[in-house]
Automatic annotation (TrEMBL):
GO biological process, one term: carbohydrate metabolic process
Family membership noted in the UniProt record: Belongs to the glycosyl hydrolase 1 family.
Any Pfam family: Glyco_hydro_1
Membrane spanning residue stretches: none
Active site, per annotation: E138 (nucleophile)
Molecular function, one GO term: beta-glucosidase activity
Name used for this protein in its record: Thioglucosidase
Length: 229
């Protein structure tokens, strides 16, 4: 999350991170929920006993991180919803990928991606969570699923996406982040949980009506050469 414009947005971006990521990481590293969650949620938030806190604190063997996009965060007006939830408690509006019509990053067919955000989140995790051993379990970009096969094979945009993110990952490692692996999403086109067959994330083209029919895309050729060096 990136703050949109104001100091209030800066605080909102941090709250959003604490509610989305810190909710899970803080207990595993520090033994309790983020303080901002306890302050806002109050009695609705379960409390760790001392024994539970000691059990979970430091129990993280490694962190698996999926990174695709960075969103702008804006401070939301205070309200008292009839059914408060993890979506309303932070008081943050997310889902914006541009400000004043300027995209935060590179416009791709499926979303706007922002490689510097990759380095930013790794830096934040390094400093706040004692630099856990981290594996990048997913990173990539999708093309539309209805492209012709020749157009789908010429996926230079995917090469650009991975190359720029790997460059920022290299910077993060040089900063000191303990990153032990990078897994591109994905090796081949597949059925996506939220999008079905309408998008293609793969470095290899798959004929969805005959899955045995597969062709390597330009990105697959580039990536195989990259990891062989």
């Amino acid at each position: 999350m990136e703050p949109c414009t104001t100091d209030e947005d800066q605080a909102a971006a941090k709250r959003a991170f604490d509610f989305i990521v810190g909710w899970f990481l803080d207990p595993l590293v520090h033994g309790d929920y983020p303080q901002i969650m306890k302050d806002i949620v109050g009695e609705r938030l379960p409390k760790f006993t001392t024994r539970e806190s000691n059990l979970v604190k430091g129990s993280l063997d490694f962190l698996g991180l999926n990174y695709y996009v960075t969103q702008y965060a804006t401070d939301a007006p205070p309200s008292i919803p009839s059914l408060p939830s993890a979506l309303t408690d932070p008081g943050v509006t997310l889902g914006y990928y541009d400000t004043n019509g300027v995209p935060i990053g590179v416009q791709a067919p499926s979303f706007v991606y922002y490689p510097p955000g990759f380095r930013d989140i790794l830096s934040y995790i390094r400093t706040k969570y004692n630099n856990p051993r981290t594996y990048i379990t997913e990173n990539g970009v999708a093309d539309f699923g209805n492209l012709t096969m020749p157009d789908a094979l010429r996926d230079n945009g995917r090469i650009q996406c991975h190359c720029s993110h790997l460059a920022c990952l290299k910077c993060a490692i040089e900063d000191g982040s303990d990153v032990a692996g990078y897994f591109a999403w994905s090796a081949m086109d597949n059925y996506e949980f939220g999008n079905g067959y309408t998008v293609r994330f793969g470095m290899n083209w798959v004929n969805f009506t005959n899955p045995a029919d597969r062709r390597q895309k330009d990105s697959g050729n580039w990536f195989s050469q990259f990891i062989a060096k």
